[in-house]
Amino acid sequence: MNKFLTTLLAVLLLVSFSSALYAYDDDTEVLLETIGALSAQDLYLTYSSIGSTIDAWCFEAYTDEETVDMLLEFVSMCEAVSDQLTILLHSDIMNSEDIAFVSEIVDAFGILIDEGEAAINFIETGEESYLDRFEVKRNKAWDKIADLLDLE
């Protein structure tokens, strides 16, 4: 019985210690929650913006050049955010649960980048394979974003 209590006490101390290691101070928690909220908004709005831009291009509201320029801006912003989130992933600031979630956000930005690049390539070349890739990436991006934001 004494050995059981000693083992139980050791496990409880270990759990308490590991929980304390991964507890955030109030400032860090606010910053991480803000990063999450802004990332969610950025994913959703970028997905919508790419789609709206392509829709407008299809109806000839934008020229090829205007559309490519806008898509390049979306891709560039996604790359910048993804790069910064990757730095955060390697910073040892977050616990494993938050690291996993931010990794999923980075993956979602990667899909949006692929979607934007496929659209650009289609506009510039007219090759159907790029249109097919755009559609695949668009659907994959929405599935990922909807899952991350718990929209479905």
Structural overview:
The chain has five helices and no strands. It is elongated and about 50 Å long. By secondary structure, it is an all-alpha fold. About 11% of the residues have low confidence. Helix content is 86%, strand content 0%. Helix 2 runs antiparallel to helix 3, helix 2 runs parallel beside helix 4 and helix 4 packs antiparallel against helix 5. The protein has one domain.
Summarize the structure.
This protein is mostly helical and 152 residues long. 86% of the residues lie in helices and 0% in strands.
List the SSEs and their pairings.
Layout lengths: L1 H20 L4 H33 L5 H26 L6 H30 L2 H21 L4
Helix pairs in contact: 2-3, 2-4, 2-5, 3-4, 4-5
Please supply descriptive tags for the structure shown above.
152 residues, mainly alpha, 5 helices, elongated
- The overall pLDDT, averaged over residues, is 89
Instruction: Name the helicity range.
Output: over 70%
Main sheet characteristics = none
Number of helices: 5
Succession of helices and strands: HHHHH
Distance between the termini: 50 Å
- Radius of gyration, CA atoms, in whole angstroms: 21 Å
Total strand count, please? 0
| Structural class designation | mainly alpha
Which residue ranges are poorly predicted, with pLDDT under 50 across at least 5 consecutive positions? Answer: 4-20
Which percent band covers the strand fraction? Answer: under 5%
Shape: elongated
What count of domains describes the coordinates?
A: 1
